[in-house]
Amino acid sequence: MKSYHFAFILLFFLLLHQSLSANFRVPYSSTAKAKKNTRGKTFENQWKREIWPPQPYAPQKKIEGLSLIKNYFVEFGYLQSFAPFSDFLDRGTILAIQNFQQRFNLQVTGNLNNQTLNQILLPRCGVPDKNFPHGFIDNEALPNYRNQWFAKRNLTYGFLPESEIPESMRKVFRDSFTRWAKAIEVLNPTETTYENADIKVGFYSFAEGVPEQLYGISSVRLEAGSNVSIGEIRLDGSYYWAVPSENDSVSWKEGVLDLESVAMHEIGHLLGLDHSFMEESVMYPYILPSQQRKIQMSNSDKNNILQQYSDAMSGYGGSWGVLVTTTLSLGFGYVVLLDSLWI
């Protein structure tokens, strides 16, 4: 990891406390009426207007809006560069596009074709896919494989009171924690108060300018003056989050996401799993149009989590502890928390 990337992550952590409000009630509905997110100018519309249809590669060709793509690739680990970004299509960007296409089993062209742009525009988790620090920086860390962050088997979780999360949604998280626990066979997750929880769950109002495709993140921080790690799952409250009884209403294009699928994914991060590039995995970073509800672990998910906890119990990688990622500071906006949230 080059030093400039560490500096970028540090800036990202410093911005963490500035502009995300927790006083946001999750907009759930028993009918889950479809309602498109209207958080400013959408990322999708901006990209489609500026760089759609894709333009063929020419050395140092200027493509309006390409700086947004470069920023996206830096944030998720595909391009090692530093802002400000230009709109010129350089060799590094072409290699980043090719790497992204290879990872997600797309046609490898090095061009921003429709298939690649459609993938980028899907809702996704805010945790980077690759090339990020594997330790704590300013008491914050990003989730990564083979780090065990909970020094206990009796794992607790709680819900942010300000989110006023209804029982139907709490049950979704209970079921998701239980599903992971059954796969691991050594964890005993139980619900407790938000203040006392190892993992804290809440819905937030993301800052203006954050693309609606970023549905949320999971993260870990060290409590001040101690080695106690606290996990957090922060989801975008401007989406409609459908519970299992509302499966028929799920539509990412209409801003309605399946809560249980996302809960399974974010809990997996906090238990120490990276993103998977296998579409059947619950750790796949994007919500695919053909798999908008995905709650059953694939064989690879089960093998990875069993290996993770087998290594931890045998002493691999040191003691257990909780990892939570810090929010992702995208160049087009920041997802951050108010200072009052940090307890």
From TrEMBL:
<keyword id="KW-0106">Calcium</keyword>
<keyword id="KW-0865">Zymogen</keyword>
<feature type="binding site">
    <location>
        <position position="283"/>
    </location>
    <ligand>
        <name>Zn(2+)</name>
    </ligand>
</feature>
<dbReference type="Pfam" id="PF01471">
    <property type="entry name" value="PG_binding_1"/>
</dbReference>
<dbReference type="Pfam" id="PF00413">
    <property type="entry name" value="Peptidase_M10"/>
</dbReference>
<keyword id="KW-0378">Hydrolase</keyword>
<keyword id="KW-0479">Metal-binding</keyword>
<feature type="binding site">
    <location>
        <position position="218"/>
    </location>
    <ligand>
        <name>Ca(2+) 3</name>
    </ligand>
</feature>
<dbReference type="GO" id="GO:0008270">
    <property type="term" value="F:zinc ion binding"/>
</dbReference>
<protein>
    <submittedName>
        <fullName>Gelatinase A</fullName>
    </submittedName>
</protein>
<keyword id="KW-0482">Metalloprotease</keyword>
<comment type="similarity">
    <text>Belongs to the peptidase M10A family. Matrix metalloproteinases (MMPs) subfamily.</text>
</comment>
<dbReference type="GO" id="GO:0006508">
    <property type="term" value="P:proteolysis"/>
</dbReference>
<dbReference type="InterPro" id="IPR024079">
    <property type="entry name" value="MetalloPept_cat_dom_sf"/>
</dbReference>
<feature type="binding site">
    <location>
        <position position="269"/>
    </location>
    <ligand>
        <name>Zn(2+)</name>
    </ligand>
</feature>
<dbReference type="InterPro" id="IPR006026">
    <property type="entry name" value="Peptidase_Metallo"/>
</dbReference>
<dbReference type="GO" id="GO:0030198">
    <property type="term" value="P:extracellular matrix organization"/>
</dbReference>
<dbReference type="InterPro" id="IPR001818">
    <property type="entry name" value="Pept_M10_metallopeptidase"/>
</dbReference>
<dbReference type="GO" id="GO:0004222">
    <property type="term" value="F:metalloendopeptidase activity"/>
</dbReference>
<feature type="binding site">
    <location>
        <position position="216"/>
    </location>
    <ligand>
        <name>Ca(2+) 3</name>
    </ligand>
</feature>
<dbReference type="GO" id="GO:0030574">
    <property type="term" value="P:collagen catabolic process"/>
</dbReference>
<dbReference type="InterPro" id="IPR002477">
    <property type="entry name" value="Peptidoglycan-bd-like"/>
</dbReference>
<feature type="binding site">
    <location>
        <position position="236"/>
    </location>
    <ligand>
        <name>Ca(2+) 3</name>
    </ligand>
</feature>
<feature type="binding site">
    <location>
        <position position="227"/>
    </location>
    <ligand>
        <name>Ca(2+) 2</name>
    </ligand>
</feature>
<dbReference type="InterPro" id="IPR021190">
    <property type="entry name" value="Pept_M10A"/>
</dbReference>
<feature type="binding site">
    <location>
        <position position="275"/>
    </location>
    <ligand>
        <name>Zn(2+)</name>
    </ligand>
</feature>
<feature type="signal peptide">
    <location>
        <begin position="1"/>
        <end position="21"/>
    </location>
</feature>
<dbReference type="InterPro" id="IPR021158">
    <property type="entry name" value="Pept_M10A_Zn_BS"/>
</dbReference>
<dbReference type="GO" id="GO:0031012">
    <property type="term" value="C:extracellular matrix"/>
</dbReference>
<keyword id="KW-0645">Protease</keyword>
<feature type="binding site">
    <location>
        <position position="265"/>
    </location>
    <ligand>
        <name>Zn(2+)</name>
    </ligand>
</feature>
<keyword id="KW-0732">Signal</keyword>
<feature type="binding site" description="in inhibited form">
    <location>
        <position position="125"/>
    </location>
    <ligand>
        <name>Zn(2+)</name>
    </ligand>
</feature>
<dbReference type="InterPro" id="IPR036365">
    <property type="entry name" value="PGBD-like_sf"/>
</dbReference>
<feature type="domain" description="Peptidase metallopeptidase">
    <location>
        <begin position="145"/>
        <end position="311"/>
    </location>
</feature>
<feature type="active site">
    <location>
        <position position="266"/>
    </location>
</feature>
<feature type="binding site">
    <location>
        <position position="198"/>
    </location>
    <ligand>
        <name>Ca(2+) 2</name>
    </ligand>
</feature>
<keyword id="KW-0862">Zinc</keyword>
